[in-house]
Design goal:
By secondary structure, the protein is α/β, with parallel strands linked by helices. It is built from 4 helices and 9 strands; from the N terminus they run E-E-H-H-E-H-E-E-E-H-E-E-E.
Length: about 160
């Protein structure tokens, strides 16, 4: 349990949603690293997608500004990484938290690209480089429940 000093507010997209449930296998990490691996011999996402029904993509950024985050998400989308997505969980970005460049901020940098999937997007989750941050085990089936104040992960261990 955290002893938070700030009010916790999650942003859920599409914005008409007050709460969401997402099921799938956790996959993702820091966009600064993933975007650089995409398309290299270390990129096995297409093979992973072949054996998977649903993926909950967990993404966050350390160094990226809002325009870099937009390019990184666009790059992964166009490389086919999100073909099996069941939803997206986006952590607070360290370098671009509260920043805006050319009308692009930490939210629309992601939602403008991912909204075409018509899947839930939970933003400002407690993951990544901004405290408090919960470690997330990748490659494990899970259910995520979220409303605008709470975020719960239930792992489905085999």
């Amino acid at each position: 349990t955290y002893n938070l000093t700030e009010k916790k507010v999650l942003k859920i997209f599409p914005e008409k949603s007050d709460s969401v449930k997402i099921e799938g296998i956790f996959l993702g990490g820091c966009l600064d690293v993933l975007a650089n691996l995409c398309g290299t011999k270390l990129d096995s996402v297409k093979e992973f997608n072949l054996g998977t029904e649903k993926i909950i993509w967990i993404l966050e950024s350390c160094d990226g500004n809002p325009t870099e985050i937009r390019r990184q998400v666009w790059h992964l989308k166009n490389a086919g990484w999100f073909e099996k997505a069941s939803g997206f969980i986006i952590g607070r970005p360290l370098a671009s938290l509260g920043k805006e460049i050319f009308g692009i901020n930490q939210y629309n940098a992601v939602t403008d690209i991912l909204s075409e999937f018509n899947l839930p997007i939970i933003m400002d989750a407690d993951i990544g480089h901004v405290d408090p941050a919960v470690p997330v085990a990748m490659g494990i089936p899970a259910e995520v429940f979220s409303d605008k104040n709470n975020f719960t992960i239930k792992y489905k261990w085999n």
